[in-house]
Amino acid sequence: METKEKPNHTIEEIARQDYIDNVLIKLAPNNLRYLTKAERFLEYGICPEPCNAIRFQRAFSTWTSGNLEIDFFIQNAQIHATNRWLVLEWYPWETFFEIEKIGEGDYGTVFRAKTRIGEICRWDYQTNAWRRSFKFFSKNDGKYIYKEHVALKTFGHPTSLSTDLLKEAKKLQRWAYQNSDWATLYGFTKNEITGQYFLVLWYFENGDLHKQLQQGTGGWREKLNIIRRIAFIWIRFIRQE
Question: For 60, which DSSP code?
Fold first, then answer.
């Protein structure tokens, strides 16, 4: 079991500002400003956004990644999330099973794994817990999609936290804010045996984009929409770099 590091308020404040500067502010259109917790209460009263942030905050002491940078990154994502797609979580390694290596190269090492828990959907007032699901509705496809697998991606040496891991996490989270109904990052996990940290990512059941386009069943219009959507989001994304 992880030993929670002693809180460091200086590191916590730096992490909070870094999240705002590199994930939120850079992608805010025009002069959009994200409301503080107090401002959200005044604006909305008792509503899902601030209430969920408080629920996440109350649980901060019940989990840790063993690394303050990751802890604060996840916490900031949970506090600032405006919908469920923007929520990140810490996943214990035992959450995953049937882990299979599917790729390795300069970009890192990627595994496919099945997960025992689904994504957070909403707060269940009857059970007083998060309601989770393996199924979600795809706006693009107009149908429900069942997600059984996730991808686990890692970088660098097993005994150290690679800066590439957090760098990629920031980029993916910024991507999610650009297009919040198509998030690709779920959170982080750690192999307790090797000490290696991983990003927990969306897994494309049909493989990469090339295979998606080859196996698409919606005809050329569907394929064109996929390409146009990705190109539009990516152009907006790189202009913020």
Answer: G
Taking Cα atoms as reference points, which of 91, 108, 79 lies closest to residue 186?
91
pLDDT (tens digit, 0 to 9) for every residue of the chain, 241 residues total? 555 555 556 777 777 777 777 676 554 444 444 555 555 555 444 454 567 888 898 899 999 999 989 999 999 999 888 778 889 999 999 999 999 999 887 778 899 999 998 888 888 888 888 888 876 555 555 665 567 889 999 987 666 677 888 888 998 888 887 765 556 899 999 999 989 999 999 887 655 444 544 555 455 555 555 555 555 444 444 444 4
Look-up of token digits 């917790």:
37
9-205: CATH topology is Phosphorylase Kinase; domain 1 (3.30.200)
> How many C-beta neighbours within 10 Å does residue 160 have?
11
Q: Kindly state the tokens that stand for 123.
A: 């707060």
Q: Where are the domains of the chain?
A: 9-205, 206-241
> Could you tell me the pTM of the whole model?
0.71
User: How many whole angstroms from its chain centre is CA 1?
Assistant: 23
Task: Report yes or no: 172 and 185 within 8 Å, Cβ to Cβ.
Answer: yes
Dist CA 237 CA 233 (whole Å): 6
